[in-house]
Amino acid sequence: MFFAKIDPVAFRIGAWPVRWYGLLIGLGMAIAYSLFMREVRRKGMDEDQAFDLMFWAIIIGFIGARLYYVLFSWEAYQSDPLSILFIWQGGLAIYGGVIAGGIVLYYFARRYQQPVFLWLDMAVPSLMFAQSIGRWGNFINQEAYGRIVDLTSLKSLHLPQFMIEHLWIEGAYREPTFLYESLWNLFGGLILLCLRRLNQHLKLGEMTCFYLIWYGIGRSFIEGLRSDSLYFAGFRISQVVSILMVVGGIMLGILRRKNSNIPYYSDSNIM
């Protein structure tokens, strides 16, 4: 049975198209916000301060994700710089968003004289779920796809037919790398939630280290399967950043585990 390609426009409000890409990113942000605020209340954090942080982290993170993508894809925009504003067409790089959002979080933590790693540890599970949902926006837009594969390979993954049909991109079937990363992030987020609730011996900052290592490992391997990677000087940018994340996460985790002065996450509250 033949399935038509998924229309990137979910519905219209008058003449204004509302795209699946934006809806899915918005859904991811809403879920991330809900999970973050739930933990904020549990830890005794000021909700107004937390709202300010999330609001600006989302705004600045979104801008950072776009600028990062444009920076390493400048050839596609230099003839028409105005197209940089056409974010509904896709073109967001998660690492740019994470870096920008992290800077915002650091700023607010210092501004309110609160532990940076406590805020980070509260945020990373939410971030992983948002990333997991956001990858489906890439699927709808037919981006973040993998190498050319045959139909038999896709069917062996037991994907629904509509998904297989939508993976026909530029004259060939493509590996569903968006799905690999979505599932990897989902599992990572679930692990973080379990660790946060069940492990009473996690030191402050170790969940952030887990995020750096877990996401870095997964993204490094998955990026190697993609055929639309961003390159600089012959290297896949995301693979380089991923490797640095893993190394940094391991080193930071070792240092924090050995430091007896660092409190446990379960004992850390913002008063």
From TrEMBL:
GO molecular function terms listed in the Swiss-Prot or TrEMBL record: phosphatidylglycerol-prolipoprotein diacylglyceryl transferase activity
UniProt keyword annotations, A-Z: Cell membrane, Membrane, Transferase, Transmembrane, Transmembrane helix
Gene Ontology CC terms: plasma membrane
Keyword Membrane attached: yes
Protein's membrane topology: Multi-pass membrane protein
Chain segments annotated as transmembrane: 20-38, 50-72, 84-109, 204-222, 234-255
Pathway: Protein modification; lipoprotein biosynthesis (diacylglyceryl transfer)
InterPro entries from the UniProt entry: Lgt
Domain of life where this protein originates: Bacteria
Positions with a binding annotation for a 1,2-diacyl-sn-glycero-3-phospho-(1'-sn-glycerol): R135
Enzyme Commission number(s): 2.5.1.145
PANTHER family in the cross-refs: PHOSPHATIDYLGLYCEROL--PROLIPOPROTEIN DIACYLGLYCERYL TRANSFERASE, PROLIPOPROTEIN DIACYLGLYCERYL TRANSFERASE
Name used for this protein in its record: Phosphatidylglycerol--prolipoprotein diacylglyceryl transferase
Provenance organism: Facklamia hominis
